[in-house]
Structure prediction request, 79 residues.
Amino acid sequence: MAESSNKILIGIMGSAHGIKGYVKLRTFSETPTDIAKYPLYTENGELFPKFKIIRWQEGGFLIISLPAVQDRNKALELK
Prediction:
């Protein structure tokens, strides 16, 4: 019997954006900024850290800032 899950995919981490450590976050919520209202988890079940929304980017994703990510190299490691 398959194990049931109550997880819903509402976002996908994208690539680094710029040199300040910003990251692209594709969101599937009706209002893109609503994604910040929910507790988010990674694929392996770890709690995703709180983040700051920098702006909405044309092409369908948010640019976000994470507390522990201060440069592009660190942001590249997240994808």
The mean pLDDT is 89. Residues 21 and 74 are 7 Å apart (CA to CA).
